[in-house]
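User: Continuing from earlier, I have the next pair ready.

Assistant: Great, send them over.

User: Here they are, in order.

Assistant: Folding the first of the pair now:
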Amino acid sequence: MPTISQERLTQDFLELTAVSSESLDERKAADLLTQKLHELGFSVVEDKAGEKLGGNAGNLYGFLKGTIPGEPLLFSAHMDTVKPGRNKKPILHEDGIFTSDGTTVLGADDSAGLAEILEGIRSVRESGQPHRDIEILFPVAEEIYIQGSGVFDFNRIRAKEAYVLDMSGEVGSAAVRAPSLILFRVTVNGRASHS
């Protein structure tokens, strides 16, 4: 049975939150995650999202061959953080709470999801537990209206089941369906009036 290493999960989270990763400046995060995925046996492809959006890194797609047949599973979490997200200094307090040093955001959104995905896959691989093919999508520019996902070629994805780790709430909770970002423009013709 897979066993999660709290120490390793904590270290990954601290390492990921320490990386400067504001939207369109995810290069360091992309390089770190590519290295970690390669260590787990993934093939990794970085697309041209950065060039298209004026950033310095693209979306990361990873694939790990499964040990049993079945539909692939997709896991996703975004690489970018809101501002101020450069030169972050995460602090782990004695009570187990993580904070920033107060000069930047912590960047838990979505370094927590990234660390959880990495540790989950590590624990399954170490346990020898059989698993289906695993696909990973780590997009850029999510915090600025999901622009990275907007230019990703979803024809690459084979999974019909996905887990996106980017939600707050009680541990163990999940959203089966949630609203997404939709922009629209409305023009109303007529006279102004009070209802």
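And the other member of the pair:
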Amino acid sequence: MRREVERSLEANKAAYEALRGGLRPGMTEADAFELVREAVERVCGAESHEFTGDFVGGVRTGAVEGPATDLVLKEGDLFICDLSVRRGETWSDTCRTFFLGKPTPPQRAAYAAALDLMRHCERFVRPGVVCEDVKSEAERFLAAHGLAGRMPHHVGHLVGPKPYMKPAFEERERALLPEGAVCTLEPGVYFDGEWGLRIENDYAVTASRLENLFDYPLEMEYFII
């Protein structure tokens, strides 16, 4: 399944590059969605495919998720594209946050914390880990960075035949992470009614570690438009 996920991820990469090149203040979320659609269609062509995800900008990013609307993006807004693509029989699931202008100091600090948390979870997560322990570890990490309670969702989940599969890294999930699966890590930081951000990659769960399958930048500067 690993190779199949990597093929789907080719469309994710193309979509994010399309957003980097085309996203501008004055566009709507629906316009951004069209950039993504065109990129996915270009990569997948006549092969059976579909995509879904979150396409939220401005204050809507603070609410974590949602479909594209006619909301007009302004200078200084953030835009979250959490994209799941099915190419053939297998799904991918990644997320990037785009900045339409210079990020504020709190946004820079939150992004740095989310990225550090992703790196921390890459080391913490192993086959056989109790999934709820990953969520607990992430909450402790964010609290130490002054961001307690700012990530109201899971830290990741399995992906493959479906875009979202159990077990997920969430409260009261006592299942063990299986070797050989593909999982996501998706840390985020949110201020409801203001702004939010999220990053996400897909990983192969090997015998001893997580192996990143999405060779695409994560550094904030790459996503400042």
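Worth noting for the second one:
The mean pLDDT is 98. The chain has one domain: 2-223.
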